Amino acid sequence: MTPEELSDRAEISDVLLRYFRGVDRRDWALVRRCFHADAQTNYAPFYEGGVDNFMQFLTDPAGFGVFDRTFHFAGNQLIELAGDTAETETYAMAQHTNAADAGNPTRSFLTVWLRYLDRFERRDGRWAIADRRLEVEWIRHDVGESWLDVPGRNPP
């Protein structure tokens, strides 16, 4: 690989990691910067459409906002460069807990094994997601009376 290709791959990988960090820390401005303005997202059956409405879905208590904690772990990553575009596949495991006031008598813990299939484009020297499709492989749902908080740390 050329130094330019290695640099492109590192930049693309960083965008993906910033996305996970932004979602887990509820830094919606960071999440938004991972996408081009006209990006499309397909998280079927949960959400499908433009990135601006996707950002609303992330905070909506009837959507992704039902979760008060999330933790994404990125695994295998394939980046296939083609000039100013790239196709990527990123394996991930996402863990979520529902908000205490989500209408459930007990808290639940959801673990999702999934793949992010993204088309990146470099526009004006900046790599960002132009199109995203989420493929859920399987889900595990555990219900419990409560979850323990880390001593000395307030939950988000």
From TrEMBL:
InterPro entries: NTF2-like_dom_sf, SnoaL-like. Residues 4-133 form the SnoaL-like domain. It comes from the Bacteria. Pfam families: SnoaL_4. This is Nuclear transport factor 2 family protein.
